[in-house]
Design a protein that fits this description.
There is one protein chain. The longest helix has 59 residues. The chain has 3 domains: 369 residues, P-loop containing nucleotide triphosphate hydrolases (Rossmann fold); 133 residues; 96 residues. It has 647 residues and is an alpha/beta fold. Strand 4 and strand 5 form a beta hairpin. Helix content is 50%, strand content 11%. It contains 17 helices and 13 strands.
Length: 647
């Protein structure tokens, strides 16, 4: 259970206080005549919940009250909150008094003083509501800032003032303000639980994981930069070492090249016994280059020949296909006997040996078709052969590039050493360069371990990104909206509301209730009669609070309903609160509505509290048991003697 209201208190300028005590986890009805201060209760509670403006109407209440206060039952313990009534022409006051304990007594007026301001009060109330760190990031391209849900957003779900409970355009308190309506749209998914309570923590975890992933990827990039792609510093040094007679190793990978250089670096300079003729590396590389160039020319010739064969095959296919189409017309001879007359013009053929017979033409057609089929079957093999040759050519070209780099390194080395006549000095220079390179290498970690760690971080990031994705939130929200819609549909039929035969749903984007009819969606603003508007406000808010209570969502556990019977029982018909001046159908509708609210509260007790301010005084035992005060015959929020003292 989060917050419920135990008492509403007003203090006057002379140290007196007026106390309205409420029952926890129950229906509380304050019934009474007009102009007794019933509707001001919503504004007083809203003001004590950190509103930026005191909306208590100007008049007797504002003139006679010095402080407004409420005592709250928290999840653990109690709290008393009071705010100073604004002075004349001021919209609010920053003077806030807060006291917290296991049990808190309502203080005297003399004890009230500023202990915090509205910002601090809102932070405390947000914490008491159970609202954890949260944030809503607007979609890309929108200019509004990121928003964190707080108690001011939550409390809007707990009020239905007199002028809002019958409004067909807005379902929620304060939604007439465009900016606040947008804030409600952004924060409702959090209050409903579609956004994970650990959303902010998971966002922070994702941020840290991404930083660690970037560090791993940077490390891998640095290692690959050090290793190179085969045409690296290490490879050129090894080529110079071979030319200087320090080694005969030929390595294919960077790791093998560095290992060969380390072997050279571990040899004491004084003990080097030249076993390999120096100056021969360039000759070896030249011979290797000639061989590679010859291989490159051969492969290019083979690729050219294969492509020419493919072109010839395509030309032959086109020609053969055309000839086969011509010969296919021979089908007209099927079933005829060969003779000496032309089957087309019926003229006598004088020399049949010159003109081919039917059998010869059919034989030619069969031969062409057979050759064409073999050509078509050979086409994929030609493509595969060309692809293999091009792969070999690419490898040869890569090897040539490496060979060119090594030759250039040896040439540069020889240019620098051309003045060095002593072979030992030449080898010492190469040996020193190798030693310097090896010393500059960091202690390289195992790249496989880093790659494995990088993949693990990627998988963890993907898991968190999926949990935090907008699509995941939408799926959860759609599921919750569906459950709420079923509940509202059931209750609408129980209250006999219009359009209740159709499925109902809560439209988060438009902050209204929609009936999905056979003619399309029907929003609440297009539904007729005040009875329907009040009914849909009731089922919408009670469905939400049932969800909040059962799912333990961070929303205060109370709902204020200000005169929900006004469409059946307007103030002008109120003489003593009885329903005698109301028709039978309206009396039944009012009784059904309040009984419905009573049953919902009783079902959720002690987790939910409803406070109703009403004119109606229904003569039913359950209704009478829910009345906490009757404001008639001089009893009201502000006693008459306070007004006399103020004058």
């Amino acid at each position: 259970m989060t917050m419920q209201i135990m008492d509403i208190v007003v203090f006057n300028h002379h140290g007196q206080k007026r106390l309205l005590s409420l029952k926890i986890g129950a229906l509380n009805i304050i019934t009474g005549a007009s102009k007794t201060g019933k509707s001001a209760l919503v504004d007083i509670v809203d003001y004590c919940f950190g509103s930026s403006e005191c909306r208590v109407p100007e008049g007797p209440i504002r003139r006679s009250v010095s402080w407004f206060g409420i005592r709250l039952q928290l999840e653990s313990g109690q709290a008393f909150v009071a705010r100073r009534c604004p002075v004349s022409r001021a919209v609010s006051s920053e003077d806030c008094f807060v006291e917290v304990g296991d049990e808190v007594e309502i203080p005297d007026t003399t004890s009230l003083r500023q202990t915090t301001n509205t910002k601090g009060l809102s932070a405390l109330l947000t914490s008491w509501s159970g609202i954890r760190d949260n944030i809503h990031e607007p979609p890309a391209g929108q200019t509004r800032r990121a928003l964190s849900a707080n108690v001011r957003h939550a409390i809007a779900l707990c009020f239905q003032p007199q002028d809002e409970i019958i409004r067909r355009q807005q379902l929620f308190h304060g939604a007439a303000d465009h900016f606040f309506a947008q804030a409600l749209k952004d924060t409702l998914p959090y209050f409903l639980g579609a956004v994970d309570d650990d959303y902010v923590r998971k966002r922070e975890d994702l941020r840290r994981l991404r930083e660690r992933l970037r560090a791993c990827e940077r490390q891998l990039i640095e290692l690959k930069a050090i290793q190179g792609d085969g045409i690296s510093k290490a490879a050129t040094l090894l080529a110079q070492a071979r030319d200087a007679g320090l080694s005969s190793s030929v390595a294919d990978t960077w790791e093998e090249t560095v290992a060969a250089l380390r072997d050279i670096g571990e040899i004491p300079m004084a003990s080097i016994d030249v076993k390999f003729p120096d100056g021969q590396e360039y000759s070896r590389l030249t011979d290797e280059r000639s061989r590679l160039l010859e291989e490159q020319r051969r492969l290019r010739d083979e690729i050219s020949a294969a492509r020419a064969f493919k072109r010839d095959e395509m030309g032959f296919s086109r020609e053969a296909d055309e000839q086969r189409a011509r010969l296919t017309s021979i089908g007209i001879f099927d079933g005829s006997n060969p003779g000496h007359s032309c089957p087309l013009c019926a003229q006598e053929l004088t020399d049949s040996s010159i003109i081919p017979g039917t059998a010869q033409i059919k034989e030619a057609l069969t031969d062409v078709s057979s050759r064409l089929a073999s050509v078509v079957r050979a086409a994929p093999q030609v493509e595969r052969a060309i692809s293999d040759l091009e792969s070999k050519l690419q490898h040869i070209q890569s090897t040539l590039a490496k060979n060119r780099a090594e030759m250039e390194a040896v040439r540069r080395s020889n240019d620098r050493l051309q003045q060095v006549k002593d072979d030992d000095a030449k080898r010492a220079l190469v040996f020193g360069r190798i030693s310097l390179y090896l010393e500059s290498l960091p202690d390289l970690p195992d790249t496989k371990a880093i790659e494995k760690r990088s993949q693990q971080l990627k998988d963890q990031c993907a898991t968190l990104e999926e949990a935090l994705s907008d699509e995941q939130v939408r799926e959860r929200l759609d599921s919750i909206i569906s459950i709420l819609g079923q509940r509202m549909t059931e209750w609408a039929r129980e209250l006999e509301l219009e359009h209740s035969r159709y499925p109902l749903r809560l439209d988060i984007k438009k902050l209204t209730i929609v009936a999905d009819t056979s003619d399309g969606p029907l929003p609440m603003e297009r539904m007729g009669s005040g009875e329907n508007w009040v009914g849909y406000h009731l089922i919408g808010h009670l469905a939400l609070h049932e969800w909040f209570t059962e799912r333990k969502r961070p929303v205060p556990r109370f709902l204020f309903l200000d005169q929900p019977s006004q469409v059946y029982f307007p103030p002008e018909k109120d003489a003593d609160g009885s329903m005698n001046n109301v028709g039978e159908d309206d009396r039944l509708a009012v009784s059904r509505m309040f009984r419905f609210v009573f049953d919902i509260v009783e079902k959720l007790s002690p987790g939910f509290q409803v406070v109703v301010t009403e004119h109606a005084d229904i003569n039913e035992e359950w209704y009478q048991g829910a009345i906490v005060e009757r404001w008639r015959n001089g009893l009201k929020l502000i006693p008459d003697d306070w007004l006399a003292e103020k004058k």
